[in-house]
Amino acid sequence: MRVFLLSHILLPLFASCAAQAQTSFEYKGIYSPTNAEDEVRARYATNHVDYDWDLWGHNLKKVVESNPDNAVYATVADTLCKAQFCFSSPQLFSIVENYILDQYGEGTSTYSARLLIMPQDNKLACTCPDCRKLGNSEHNATPAVTQMLCRLAKRFPRHQFFTSSYHSTSIPPETKLPDNVGVFISAIDLPLRVDFSQTKGYRKFVGTVEAWKKVCNKLYVWDYERNYEDYLTPFPCLRAMQSRIKLYRDLGIKGIFLNGSGDEYSAFDDMQTVVLAQMLSNPDIDVDAKVREYFENAYPTTAQLISDYYLALENRTVSTNHVLPLYATMEELVESYLNADEFIEWRKQLDKASKGTAKPERTRLNYLLTALSYTQLQLMQLQGSTDEDEMDDMIEILRGHSELKGMEYYSESYGKIDDYIKKTSNKTAK
């Protein structure tokens, strides 16, 4: 699903806050609705996986599905397992080789395909005799995966191949990889907090990076910047992300992929994408100044009201150093940074102030206030509120999501806003 979200009203803003510093990373990927716009990526020199990867993520299965053959699947506990691949399989190599030839050819001096070849999203590893001979074990698929990557890299020297350091491929290979092979190192175990320097996750992550450096020249990081259980509630991640991006720069990481909300609207995505894009060019930017600059341009009437509230959330993540959970319930958000009474009062003030705004600010606020009505409903339910009139008002505002592009789901797991409205309406009717 491609969403052209607010581009006609956002693009005039970017000229005033375009990144000027020399880029710190060769790859600057942000998977967000705002970064899906051609003009945004051009202005900030950012990347988007839908446009600059020829094979991405766990999509190897789509290549294989059109060529069904049990020989491409893993053996797990002496049993055929179609949930994972056998990377020593000649049939699998042949399918991928033919796919590359058919789709991208041999490559040229000016054209190179970019392909991410990684196992399915689980911890299973093939332990067939051939994979075991290469070095695979029950939880380590690195030997077979990197053997296949090296064969592909040699077969197609003008194309770029990547794998992942994640689950069954977290252990680096023992031999150096070709120059046209890189790795995405998952940052999932690095706590999303402003100061993570004393955590086990930090030590583990740095150790993983240093280990891969010995065998690979092109290290990228796959990172996460959203609450994937709730896209619609404000998620003040910028200070925490800045700490991480500075770390990646200092470790010599060459590229970053920030996994956001994809095509789905998330609260403050417009501002956060622009600030993160600038951060990827210059990790030392003044976050507060960039946030205020964006809001002053995009929301001129309500800029101070929004900036003060949003930055208060960011400052709270600094003062408390709470972890920002990537799959958080509303209870966890309240424990971390979200004060229910403060939020409800602020949303009320913002709604009142929005009445005096003109387009395009009013359009942006319509998106934001619709999303925030979901947050207020969640908070009122958490508080055990009996104010049915207020809840009915929030439900009615939230119903307006159907008129807004890119606002169908509230979570990564395809939680539909319409289903939430139906469930919440039934509760308030009892």
Tell me the CATH architecture of the largest domain: Alpha-Beta Barrel
Average pLDDT: 93
Largest sheet: 6 strands, parallel
Number of domains: 2
Low-confidence stretches: 1-22
Concise overview:
This protein is an alpha/beta fold. It contains 17 helices and 8 strands.
If you had to describe this structure to a student in words, what would you say it looks like?
With 430 residues, the protein is of the alpha/beta class. It folds into two domains: 7-285, TIM Barrel (Alpha-Beta Barrel); 304-429, no CATH class. The protein contains 17 helices and eight strands. It has helices spanning 7-14, 38-44, 49-52, 60-65, 90-104, 129-134, 142-155, 200-213, 238-251, 269-281, 287-298, 303-320, 330-336, 340-354, 361-383, 388-399, 417-429; strands spanning 27-31, 73-76, 79-85, 114-116, 160-165, 181-186, 218-224, 255-259. The strands form two sheets. A six-stranded parallel beta sheet has the order 1-8-7-6-5-4. Strand 2 and strand 3 (79-85) form a beta hairpin. Helix 9 (238-251) runs parallel beside helix 10 (269-281), helix 14 packs antiparallel against helix 15 and helix 15 (361-383) crosses helix 16 (388-399). The chain is globular and about 65 Å long. The two termini are 37 Å apart. The model is unreliable at 1-22 (pLDDT under 50).
Key attributes of the depicted protein:
10% strand; TIM Barrel; six-stranded parallel β-sheet; 2 domains; 430 residues; two-stranded antiparallel sheet; alpha/beta
